[in-house]
Amino acid sequence: MHRLLNYSLALPLLLAIGCRPYDKPEFEEIDTSETGFLIPLEGDTAEQTTFESEAYLNQQKVAAKRVQIPHRWVQLGRTIGNGEWIDTVRLVKVDRSPVTREWTADANTGTASTNQAIWIESQDSVGFAVGFNCTAHIIEPDTAKFLYMYRSKSLAEMMDSEVRARVQSIAAEVAAKYPLDELRSRKPEMIDAVRTGVVPFFAERGITITTIGMFGGFTYQNPKIQAAIDETFVAQQLKVIAAAKQQAQVKENERLQLEADAQAAKVRTIAEGEADAIAQVAKATAAAQADPLFIELRRLEVEQQRVLRWDGKYPSHITQFGDAKPNLLLQMAPLMSR
User: CB atoms < 10 A from the CB of 118, how many?
Assistant: First the structure.
């Protein structure tokens, strides 16, 4: 009985000392915009050396969206239960989602509230900042390449570090070629140089840049430079407006002159036509006066007017001149008696 009691007291102690903790399953999920890689944490020397290749990483790519992390028991003491379960693989996920950055000097604009503008300097040592925007993502075939190049870094981290640094470097090279006055008209050249030097460079490193460009104007370190530029621009605009008004007045004067010339030509044409018509009538009249038919026609016209005006009464006196027929009737006034 005493021996049985000793066994019952020792059993819990033996179980506590001799049993390992339960290997609780561990699962991790991979989002639809992510690509997962199961990287072995243990292996021989050959496997450790091949880990440095892009081809090896492609072999470790997993298609499943939920994976189980296998464990291995590590003995840490003399007793069986003195140890722990450790992972034999590590799941590395590469986020392929697009990332957009706007690097500006203004705290109210851009991706961050801090000054992230691209600060450069012109040939005549005038410092200024330019704003750039950039959008990039990682396509599925390039996920192993990106992981090989940048290991534990995300695309957002690379945009704010290496991509931004390269943009600034190329923009600074272009700015150093020209003085400030000429540089303002060289923006297209600067943008082309940045695109040519940035897009292919990061494509070889697994980053696909879809958009990169400059936006906004120059922000100068010395505010007086911007004030002087603004004053010059206002003066130039006023000059342009004055020239435009003068040109418009010249056009208006030309229009009025053309209208006056047209009106004068119209008046001359009408006058010439009327004079020509009068001359033709006079010529025709002079020619017709020598024609007996014309004289007879005029007599008939006079007779017609007389008939139209006759009141139906005959004159009391008829006067005849010479041997001509009594064609002219005169109303004689009555003789007054003395």
Answer: 24
CA 254 vs. chain centroid, Å, equals 39
| pTM, 2 dp | 0.59
Express each pLDDT in 69-122 by its tens digit: 999 999 998 888 899 999 999 999 999 999 999 887 765 554 554 557 788 888
Cβ atoms of 100 and 111 closer than 8 Å:
yes
Q: What is the C-alpha to C-alpha distance for residues 132 and 322, in angstroms, rounded to an integer?
A: 121
Which one-letter DSSP state was computed for residue 141?
Answer: G
How many domains does the chain contain in total?
Answer: 3
How far is 285 from 9, CA to CA, in rounded Å? Answer: 162
Pairing of strands 71-75, 83-87: antiparallel
Q: Give ∠ CA 222-226-231 in degrees, rounded to 5.
A: 140
Rounded Cα–Cα distance for residues 266 and 256 (Å): 15
Report the distance separating Cα 102 and Cα 110, nearest Å: 5
The type of residue at 309 is R
Domain that holds residue 35: 20-95
Buried b (16+ CB within 10 A) or exposed e, 143-178: bbbbbbbbeeebbeebbbebbbeebbebbeebbeeb
Amino acid at 253: N
Q: Could you give the CA distance from residue 101 to residue 165 in angstroms, rounded to a whole number?
A: 13
Q: What angle do CA 123, 128, 134 make, to 5 degrees?
A: 110
For residue 331, give the 3-state DSSP assignment: coil
* In-domain check, residue 122: yes
Q: Contacts from 56-60 at CB under 8 Å and sequence distance 24+?
A: 57/144, 57/147, 57/148, 58/144
Choice between 15 and 319, residue whose per-residue pLDDT is larger: 319
Q: Are the CB atoms for 84 and 77 separated by under 8 Å?
A: no
Do 104 and 215 sit in the same domain of this protein?
A: yes
- pLDDT of 194 reads 94
Q: At 214, which CATH number?
A: 3.30.479.30
